[in-house]
Structure formats: C-alpha cells, structure tokens
Batch of 3 targets.
Target 1
Amino acid sequence: MPVKKFKQHIPEEMTLRILHKLPVKSLIRFSCVSKQWLSTIIHDPEFAKYHYKLAREQQTLSHILLVSTQTSGLESIDLETRSFGDNSGVRRLISPFNEPGHLRFLGSCNGLVFVCQGSYENMSIWNPLTGFLHNLHFPGFLSQGELTFSNHGFGYVSATDDYKVLVACYEREGDEAIGEYLVYSLRANAWAAIEDPPPYYLKTGYTQGALSNEALHWLDLLDEQHRQRILVFDLAKEEFWYMLAPTFEEADEEVGELEEDAELANLEMMDMDQRYWIHIGVFLGGSLCLWLWTADKMYIEFCVMKEYGVHESWTKLFKYSVADDLGLLDINPLRGLKTVFHTESGTVVAICYDKNELIRIEKLENVVVTSRRCPVGEVLEEVVQYDESLLSLIEYENPTQGGNEERDSTQNNEEGASTKNNEEGA
C-alpha cells in the first residue's frame, strides 16, 4: 500500500505567535525562508512594533554599542558579552554613509539611531541591524553668520505614534548668544521653529539629550539661587521646562564602596568647586540618572530619579573610584570621561577620550571587574547605545509631501535585509 504524504500546515496565527518571541537576529535569518516571511518580518510595521513591545516588556532586548572610529568605520558591540576583550560579540558594520569616519551620533530610540555626517545638513535615521536608512532633508537655520551647534536629540511620542528630532545652534552677537531650535516631526514630514527658546549655553559639552519619559534632558547652568538645573524638552508638547538637580552633602562612606538602594539624606547645598554633576543619562529601563565627580576624592557617584518629575525621589545608588576601580590615575573626568551605558545594578560603560578606549566596569559578587576595549591604531570618534529592533520608518514614508523622494538606501534591503548584508565578522 502506498504511503500517503500528509502536508503539515501550521496556522498563520500560531506562526506569528512563534515569530514574535524570537530574537531579532534569528528573525533576520528566517526572513529568507519565503517571500511571505520576508514580507512579514522585514516589511510589516505592525509586526515590528509588536515584536519590539513584547521584547521590551519581557526584557529580552539586545543592548548594543555602536562605535565609530576615525578611519575603519563602524562596529557594534553586544553588551551581553561580559568582557570587552571577548570579540565574539563584536561585528564590523558596512556603513551606508559616504564618510563613515566623520559621523556624529545625535541620539537613539527604539533601535533607530539619529546620525549626522559632519554638519546638520546631512542627517539620517538608521537601523544598524537591518540597514534601513531614512534621510532627513534639513532646511537650514535662518542665521547667516558663523554658527556653533548646540544641543540635539531624538525620541518617540507614543500618543501620536511619531518620531521627533531636535537640533539647535547659536550665533554670538557681542555678549549675547542668539540661537535657534528646530524640531522635525516624522509623521508630518516637516520642520518647525521653537518659539521662545531657552538660553543656549549649557553647563557641559555633552549636547546629546538624555531620552526619558518621552522628553530630552540636558544639564544647565545654575539658577539665581545657585541651584543646578536640568533643561527638559517635552517632545509631545514641543515645550521647554526646568527641573532641579539634587544636591548632596559630602558622603562619608569609603571610596569605591557600592551603595545599593541607599536613600539620599540631609539634602544640603554642596561646594560647587569640589562636587558637581557633570553628566546626565538614562539607566537601562528608562530612569533618568546623574553622575558627579568629586575633585578631592576622585570618584564618580551615580544617582537615579525613581519617580519621574519628583525631586524627592532622587536616590543615590553607587560610586566608583576613578583611580582604583577604573585605573585612571591621571584622568580628568570632566573633560576625558563620558558614560554611555548604565544599569542600576552597577554596570557602567564609559568612553575615555584621554586614553582612547572604552571601559566597562561592574560589581560581580562584591568584586569590581573592569575590562577595556581599545581600537588598535584607531581613534574613537563616537559611541552610542541602542537596542536592536526590526523597526523601520516605512509607514511614515510619503513622497508626495516632498521630503523623502531621495530614499537612496531606504529600500536597498528589500530583497534580503539581513545582518549578512550589513555586517562582516569581527
């Protein structure tokens, strides 16, 4: 008797439920299975959105560093790799940009990176995993003199399902700084000037806004009462406002001791010549964080805003000795050290410009472990952290509005948008 062949069939709903739970790199490979899977995985915005939402809720996102060097271009580093000395988590990226060694990373959100080539005239939103590239057509600033580029940022507004970009510049006229802020709405495909912008001189030279709670944040100058402020830009309302940074009395604990969940106490005015906030960032999970450098004891100390917008919720978490834990005996953290990744458990990744290296520091079983990555013969240019996703901007593209006719690289990956095409082995 001939054996009957049964054609097995998995319902489409079940297939989607399985695909939604897979890692993005596996999905990229599986997009080659069939045209239907390619269409679903790569070109279906709703699939990408749900997959990212589920991965974020289940905390299965892959956290990646995007690194640009002066001549060799771009590489990605998987932050799940415990040591920077392990090359298994490093991939060389094929750059879609004309001058990969002259890039500026102006922000990241939902797996997308806001990239600028040189000046603001050449701006793009790029997904380093899939290779999707959306070019922004910048109208330019109204000022005609010599401009200094100021703060910038990139974020997502959930209420309107819109991505927004903020860029700024200022022009000095005598003792005054005349500036201009422009915001771009991807859904409207239009630029608009921000009326009544804030002063343009910020406390630090780190001009990338820290993205938290759908708002961008920068450290600002002291106010009239000598309190340090945080400048906030609400992406939904497109408005600026201020919140106060915390002030601390000098800590008595031993330098380098990890202080897990220690509440801030006795908030007092500190000596700004000895202790001051020098960087603002976001902990893994989205909470706003600050770190300070104490000039006399040479350590950096981190705190987190547990409840967004509530000043009393600032909580001191941990501190590391610059000399003992980081091994930086001759570093000036104000000028030579910038953190690019933080977790509330004590893992920190920083770029050390003075030493031309990346430093990873973490607390493992009460032992501080530090690893370094230094590009041999290379100069580190830019570093940004992003989460891998399949998200693209296909659903926002509307050539009839006149802003996106030249989508050079946007559709280049349609017939196989994969890390094979976008990455080379380290």
Target 2
Amino acid sequence: MKNKRALSWMLSIVLMCSFVLSACSGGNKDSGNGGDASNSASVSPSSSASESATASDEKHDPVTLKFISWKDTYNGLYDLFHQKYPWITIEQVPVNGQPIMGIIQAMEAAGTPADVSEIDQDLIAFDQNQLLEDLTPYIEKSTIMQGVSLPQGFYDTMTFNNKKLAVPMVDVPMWILVNKDLLAKHGVEMPANDWTYDDFRNVAKKITDPDAGEFGLTTQAEFQMRLLSTKAVADGHAANLQYMNEDLTQSVMNSPEVMSDVKWLQEFVTKDGSMQSNDAATASGNVSREFKNGKTGFAIGGDWVLPGLKKEAKFNWDVLPFPRGTQSQPGYTIYGPLSLLAGSKHKEEAFLWLSFQFTMEAQKWKIDQGANASVIDPALTAYYDETEMWKGKNTEAVKIAKENAKIQPGLTVPGWGEYNWNNIMNDIIFGTRDINDIIPETEAWNKKTLELAASLK
C-alpha cells in the first residue's frame, strides 16, 4: 500500500512539472472540465491531480466505487462520470427498502465497505455512529468545488459541529402544477408568476365543480407538507420551512399566526369545497388524489412527477412558482444528501464522485431530469430554456422556483424525527383532528430538541 501511495505521489509530481513546463512554453490551456478552476496549479498534487485532468493519458489502477442509492435513474450520470474518469466505475448498491445506516454497517462488517451513500435520515445519527467523513478538507482542496459559485448558506443544513457531512446529490424543486385545460373550461386564465395566495384560493374555488368530479386542488399531503409552511414563511410567520425559527432551535408551529395559516388551508376542505378530505376522496373513487387524472386544477409537483405527466397526462399542463405572500415569494426545495463514508477504501476517488455533481455536464444532466441546478452560473440559468424537459412550459416559473427556494431543514436538527409537524397537519387538514392539539405537541418537542442539543455539545 505504501509503495502504491509513493508511486501515485511521484506520478503527481511528474504531472505537475509537465503542467508547469507547458505553461512556460505558452501551451497552458483550460482543461475543459466544466466547473474546474483554471488556477489548478495552486492545488496540492495529493489533493486532485486527477481532478484537474480528464485522464486521457494518465495511468490509473481501476477503481470501483460502491454507491448506496435507492434510485435506479442515475445510469446516465454514471456514464458521464466514467467518461470523465475512465478508471473509476460506479457500482450501485440498491437499498430495497432497508435502512441505509444498516446497509453501511453490514458492508463494513463484511469487509466490503461502501464508499459513498445517499442518506435517508438525519445526519446527526450517522455522525454519532462515526460513519461519515468530514468533507471540509476535501472541499477546500477541490479545484471543482472552489471553482464554482454556490448559494449563500449552501452547506448550512448539512453541517454539524463544524463538519460538512454531505453535499446535495440532487436539489429537488417544488412547483404548483396547473391543469390549463381545466382553467380554460371554467373561463380562468393562467395566473401570472407573481400571483398571490389569495389568487390561488380564488382560482381553486372558481374551477371546482363537484357534480363533474372536478376540484381546485388534488387531495395530496404535499399541500400541507410543502405549501403550508412555505406560506408561513411568505407571510413572515416563520423564518424557515416546517415552522422553524431563525436558528432552527425551536418550532413556532403553535403560534397564533401559524395556527391561522393552518385554518386557512383547512378551509379549502371544510368551507370552500375545493379540496376533498381523505374520506371524501376515498368515497368518490380516489380520482382527486392524482393530478394526472385531469380532474383537479392544482397540485404540488417535483422532479419525480414529470416523467409520468409527460407520458400519461391527456391534458395541457404547466407549472407556476409558489404564490407570493405578504412579505416574500419563497419556494421549496429538498436537498438529497450525498456523503463520503468514513469506511471507504477509496476516499479520494469517492470525493471525485461527490465533486463531479457540480460540474457543468452533471448540472445540465440534472436539469434535464427536472431538478434544480445547484451551481450559480448564467449558462445553467439559460439552459432551462434549452432543455427538452421544459420545452413549451413556463420556464420562468422554474427559474423563480430555483432562485426563491427555501431549503427543507431537519438533517442536522436534534430530534427531528420526533417532531410531529407532518402527521398532525395531515390529520387536521384532511381529517377531523382538533387544531388545538398542535399546542401541546409543539411545546413538548421544543423542550426535547433543546435537551438533545445540549447533550450533543
């Protein structure tokens, strides 16, 4: 092992010297690696000699990276990565419904550790079990990561105790899906991108016709999961999604202002009739539960719904950003965490897979799938108008959703799994649970998360 490391180091020195000689002779050119910084000579040879080259002439021992992922849609991305780093192959380890932490531990125990993994629960638990590598030194040495512009606070939801525990594998945006045919049938024009929550409610009422089995909103939990807490932010009732305060230490779900927001959405069911309750949807054959059925005007959608819509929807659909509140027009996005595992035997190669996510080719591939670009770059913004995914659709809404998106918290909030913001809202909005149950639930969790935070210091 020592001889291999020494050989790799010597090869890196030789490469560095060849780069310097080439520069002195006037032949120094950008390597064409998308997000790579042009001043790669400032990076130490041990950090990323391979990162700043496309490896066309370099000799490398073949490496297979074991990547734990529950998705089977990344084959195109694996191919792009292999083109850039031909000596590295991605071997996907399927999840098959198992807890990812258990898969990581089992593979380590078997002597065949995984290298990188998507994460399916809070990062604190993985960190406490010493399963994740701190990405900070890798990011600081990476020509790719140092050569791209990222949104302010990009790492905030994935940092704990000053350790960067993950980067987003994918930035999953949310939009309001719109059934334009149903709007037209009721004489309603497509709303503008700066529409308000009042507009949203009024249109939903106008296009509701229970006799025809048509409703303004799809009966889906996504409305309370995504839209309701976004409205609280838009109206200044909460600083963060899921009704969290500014520093993510306490929930304000039990505040009078948020309780008023809950009543607002509840009235779509109990007063307006523009969204069916769970019982009513079941009784009417569940038609209103699926936007692609064409019987509802609005739904919450993300990249996962686009393939089905494009293939199965028999009506003209489009997207809008989340509406504007009294103070702002935030959107909603989810970061899918991607971590370098502490037990990996190929950490530098594994980080190449992480950093590759932020190259131009990978970012464009993700836009092609309906996801957001994480990197701030005019060329990527322009690409929303070029991709086949959004051809003929409201691409300005997609851009607004990206620019205004708030990031779903929770990955590094102590006790997040015990925070009952989701189930209680489902029971209130779509069922018959008493809205006042929010108060003791929130008080109990606020106390618990503070206690857990203190114990983790």
Target 3
Amino acid sequence: MTVLGEPGRYVVRGNDWSDLDDARPASPPTVSVVVPYYRAQGQLDLVLAGLAAQTHPATRLQVVVADDGSPEPPRVPAGVVVVGQEDRGFRAAAARNLGARAADGDVLLFVDGDTVPAPTYVEELAALPSLVPDALVTGRRRHADLTGWTPERVRAWFAGGPAPEELTEPAWLREAGSLLDADDRSYRFVISAVMGLGRSLFEEVGGFDETFDGYGGEDWELAHRLFAAGAVLAHRERAVAWHDGPDWGLRGDDPVAAQREKNAETRSLARLLPDPAARGVGGWWRFPDVVARLAPGVDVDATVLGVRSLLAAGLDLQVWGVDPDLLDGDPRVHAGEPPAAVLARCRTQVALSGPLLWPTGELARLVDLVRPGGVGRLLGDVDGVAVEVAATRALRRCARSGVDMSTLFGESRVDMSASAPGPHPDLAHHLPRL
C-alpha cells in the first residue's frame, strides 16, 4: 500500500509497492544511464546501440560512459558524455560514482559495459523510482552469446530480426521474485549491472563504497546500505538487459582462482555488512548490527552493569554515550554519538534513558520484532527507564518522507522483561550472571 506525498510521488508502507506495479508517471522522467567501461570498445558499441533504441524519449535520456582508466578513451556517438579516472586497478565502484556525478537526470540507471539493454529497459526500470523517491529497482539480466555481433545486428534483433543464442539464466537471480516481501538479506538480489534509483537517494547515501578494488560486492554493499536507509526494494522483470556471455558462476574458470576471488568478495563484505550470514558470529567489527545509546546511570557501577548487560545480549552490538574507560577501554563502548557511517549501516537502534539488566534472549527478542515484516518501532518503560527499539530503515524513511511511523511501519508499546540495577548495585553479585 502507498501513501500519496506530493502530486505524482508516493511513499510506500513497508515494502509493498504492488499497487504501483503498472503505474507510470504522467510524463517521462529525465534519466541518466551510467555505463562503467574498461578497454572493451566492441562490447560498448553494442550497449550504446541498445541505448539508442530505447522507447524512452531520447530528449529525456542522457548516457554517461565512465572510463576506469583505459589506455585509450572510449569512442562514442555525439551526445554521449564520457568521464574518466586514472588506472589504479579495478575500480568499478569509483567509476560508477564518477559517472553519477556527471549525470543530470532525476533517475539514475546503471548498466554494465557488457550488458545490452532491450528497447524498454529504461522505460520499465525508471518508472518506479520516478514515482517513489525511496525505490531501488533491479531489472532482469538475461544472458546471450554476442561474440562477433555488431551494432547493426543488435538493431536488427530489436526490430524483430534474428536473436543471438541465449545462455543459461542464473537461478539465484530468478529466485528474487518481485521482492515485495524483501527482508534483511534481499540485498543479494540487487546487481549494479541492471539497477535504478532516484539520483537524490543515491546522493543521500553517498553512492558506491569506493574502498572496493576488486570484482564484485560493491552492489550488495550499496543495496544493504540503501535498505537500511529505508529504500523500497523492487524487482522489475520487464526491464531486461542482455549480458554478453555466461554468469560468473557458469564460466568454468579455474576453480581455485574463482574461489579466491569469491573469498576476497566475502571478506570485503564482512567488514561492511552487519549481516550475521555475511560475517559469522563473534569478533569485533567497525560497523555493528545494533547501535545502543545509553544515558549513564546515577552512579558508575549502575552504568557499568547496564553496558555489560547490553554487550552480553548475544548481538553484534556496540554502545554509545558512555566513557569507555569505565569498561577498561572496551572497543565496543564509545563516548558521544555514533558516527554517521555506523548509523548508515546498522539495522537496529536501541535508546535507553538509563541502564537496565536484560535477561538472556530478551533484547534479541525485541530486536527481532523490528525486522522487516514486523513493526518499525517498539516503546517501553522499565522501572522508569524509557526504552526505544527501532529499525534504522523505518527511522530513515519516516524522516525523509515526513510521514509518521505508525502509518508507514507500525509502532507498539510492549512489556519488556528487564530491570533497573538501581543506585550502588553489588557488582560481585550481578556480574557473574551476565
């Protein structure tokens, strides 16, 4: 279900954009398509031929080729914008950001330099982001053998002529469905080869993380960060682009080299994604899953107990608002407010007006209640201590749209099984139980 914002713009409740599935803007949006490129002129020629055949009005379409340091710049038709960066290895994330900075469309679409968009690609992929400022849409990537193909053959194919040999479409992408029931792990179905969103949303989150300097992972990290920012995930099967060659998992590369490449991607994602399935359990991470803000108690001992109880909750959690020296410099305890980069990635935020003692499993239960499909925020009061447990994505979308939490995600007051330690608690009594 959706809520009407300004005329022609909608805010989605949860992730249910179903009543906008066939909706189209009153007039075509201005769209910029960013194509990352490196030393593959023949494939780029096919991509540009596909973009020249779009049903979206050419007067509302900009194409930006972002060159990742090729020895010779790409050759492009008049009107296509080319931007470039020096060659410092594989930097597709930085190249896409470079292209996005040169874009002037209200909607940003991405298509890889070896992936030829079908004629309705732009029209289909840009529709939802033009109506829903929070939308992040992934298209359908199909595969074909385009070896030896020319722009003329592409134009003939799209005009109804002979098609290339179609290759196997990866099953893991087909499993995405519509993404109407997207959850915390649905970022895995978003690929930058066929992706679109509003330029303002892209700029708000800071674009791709440019620390990625190898193949893969930067699109999943961005999708996770966008989902935490309140993005509505959607899969638009009608927005088709054709990748030249098989999917990465079907290329038959050297298995040891392929495993090393995949492991490098896994390590890169683990440091940035607070997803237990991506990083495992245990260990310390710069970007925690749960951010807890704790107002200090009436004395040092109560505060120490409150922090220790939070850290013992079995969650990937860090605490802000407390002098870390009270906990012997524990790296999970911080003074002041959490940094913007931490808030951009955490899935859940907990705020307490004072320290509490949490029984085993209780805080994890509350956190689970604000996962996708649950409510956006829980409120409670324990012995005079105010508690708020909220999904970051709910907080961010409500703040962006100005629509209240109860309307977009739901909000509940709940009983919480915790207790306040009170002033001057007996540490020797409580600490062994945490």
